[in-house]
Structure formats: structure tokens, C-alpha cells
Amino acid sequence: MHTGTTPFDLLGRLWGDDTMAAVWSERATVEAWLSVEAELARAQAAAGVLPQADAELIAEAATVTGLDTEALWAGARNVGYPILSLVRAIAARLPDGPNGRVHYGATTQDIMDSGFALQSVRAADRLDGLLGELGDAVEAVMTAHVHTVMPGRTHGQQAVPTTFGATLASLLAELARHTRRVRSARAAVGVISLFGAGGTSAAAGPTAPQVRHDLARRLGLRGSDVPWHAARDSVAEFGTLCAALSATCARLARNVIDLGRTEIGELAEAAGDHRGASSTMPQKANPILAEAVRPETAA
Predict the structure, then answer these.
(1) Cβ neighbours for 94, distance < 8 A, ≥ 6 positions apart
(2) Which of 66, 107, 206, 234 is the most buried (most CB within 10 A)?
């Protein structure tokens, strides 16, 4: 894949989730497009649009192995989108006949949007799993501290007594709501796109609905009888959800930082050899995980 110089992301390198990073990597993005092209050919063969042998040749050629991605991106800079170069790269691996059936009846946006849907579903599954892990951890601490009395605070000031378990119950309920939202957003964004250049499926002919729904099934996406070329509300819904998840994590991190202050000392991150150590102040044990979530607080 890309071997040039890229900006270094320190926070991502230290604290990024490798599984999620892989979902949105360059390789995974190209592989998602290739998967759509391969399964499109198979779905068309099942509908009698292509010979089965041609479809299998196309599917075998639609692989990232040996793909010249630098040429792909160079073509994209010229055309404005990468799919034309991708289709030509697949076709160049094929004999006469099937080489003219790659991408048959589809348009660039069909492939890119369907590939994005594939990646979004995988990202939603990862978020679902992470929420489950966090929720389990919060529930365990909450249960252990049902009767641990602490000051409740409003406006940053001590208000009335509460328990640590009670404060975590609110967080746990929020995580449960986010889990439902993730699953809803997964369904909303995981939708096939295969309606052709103008959204009319004209180039695909009378088998268009059959091929579209079969392609959705093969890719693990939902079918649709209405194009979403210009409708981005589901994408926005997924993005809004990610922002809301970030806000919840930021709230938790802020509480850890505030309640872990020397003057309060009600919370602390896990200890360890030099964990959170300062290069100049030996007494320090900085809340490094919380600061990774709220990097603006690291000072």
C-alpha cells in the first residue's frame, strides 16, 4: 500500500484501537470496493446477466494482491475518483470477454457507498463490542460500590451525600442507550447502493432489483428499493452517534481527572511501575488514560 511520508499521529499511535484502525485502513477500503465488484459479478451470474464462468474470473481478479495502489491513486487524482482505475486494473487481469463485464451496470458511487456501508457495519460491530466491555467493567465497579458513600456534587461543589455506585448507575444507563443506538445506526448505514449513474438502474435492466438484493445478501448488507445517492442522513446519524460516544467517554474521563486531584483523592487510575510518572516530579501519578480521552487536560 502507500509507502510515502504520512503525518505522525501520536495519540493514535499510543492509544488508538488497532481493530478499528484496520477497519478504516487503506487496504480495507480498497478491499471493500473489490468485494463489491466481485460479489456484483456473482449476483449478476445468479440472475443470468453474466455467464457463471465469467463472474468467477472477475471475482478472482478482484483482489488487492498485486494491485498497484500508487497507480490507483494517481488515476484517482486525474479522474477525481478511484473506481475507474480500479475497474481497469481488474479488467487488465482478465481475458477478452469478461474484461468488458467488470462493474457492469454500476456507477462509481454504487461501489464506494456500498464499500463504505461494509466498513461502517464492521465499525459499528467493533463499537458494540467495546461498549459491552466498558459496560461490564462499569457494572462490576458499580456493584462493588453500591454502599460506598461519597459527596454528590453540583456546580463543582459538594451538595448531598450519594454513593459511588449510584453515580456509576447513570453512566451504565447511558452506555446501554448507546448500545441500542449503535445497533440502530448499524442497520441504517449498512445499506446496499446499486442504482446506476442517475439512480434509475437503467443500465442494469429488468433484473436490477434481483441483483441488488442478492448483492446485499452476499455482502451482509440490507437491500433497498430506493437510491440513497444524495441522501446522507444515515451517514450523518452514524457520525452523530460517534460524537455522542466520544462525549460520554469525555465525561467519564473528566470525572476521573477531577476526583483524582490531590485535594480530593476519591478516584485513581490503576497503579503500576512508573505508570503516569513525571520526568521531573517523583510524587506524580498522572491520570494518563483519562488524559488520552481528554488530551486538552494534559498539562
Answers:
(1) 57, 58, 61, 102
(2) 107
Q: Is residue 3 pLDDT above 70, yes or no? A: no
Q: Which residues are known catalytic residues?
A: 155, 278
pLDDT at residue 297 greater than cutoff 80: no
What are the helix (H) ranges across the chain?
A: 10-15, 18-23, 26-46, 52-61, 69-79, 83-91, 108-144, 164-189, 208-219, 233-259, 288-293
**DSSP conformational letter for 204:** G
What is the per-residue pLDDT for 4? Answer: 59
Task: Give dist(CA 62, CA 56) in Å, integer.
Answer: 10
Neighbours of 296 (CB within 10 A): 7
Q: Which amino acid is at 254?
A: R
Q: What are phi and psi of 160, to 5 degrees?
A: -125, 160
pLDDT tens track for 154-176 = 998 999 999 999 999 999 999 99
The alpha carbon of 122 is separated from its chain's Cα centroid by a whole number of angstroms, namely 6
Is the separation of the CB atoms in 112 and 33 below 8 Å? yes
As a whole number of angstroms, the distance between CA 12 and CA 9 comes to 5
Give the closest residue to 38 by CA, choosing from 77, 76, 94.
Answer: 94
Angle of helix 208-219 relative to helix 26-46, nearest 10 degrees, comes to: 130
**pLDDT digit string, tens, across residues 7-21:** 898 988 999 999 999
Q: Are 277 and 285 in contact (CB under 8 A)?
A: yes
Phi, psi of 190 (to 5 degrees): -85, 60
Residue 272: pLDDT band with limits 50, 70, 90: confident
**pTM score of the predicted model:** 0.92
DSSP per-residue letters across 56-73: HHHHHH--STT--HHHHH
Mean pLDDT of 252-273: 92
Other C-beta atoms closer than 10 Å to the C-beta of 268 total 12
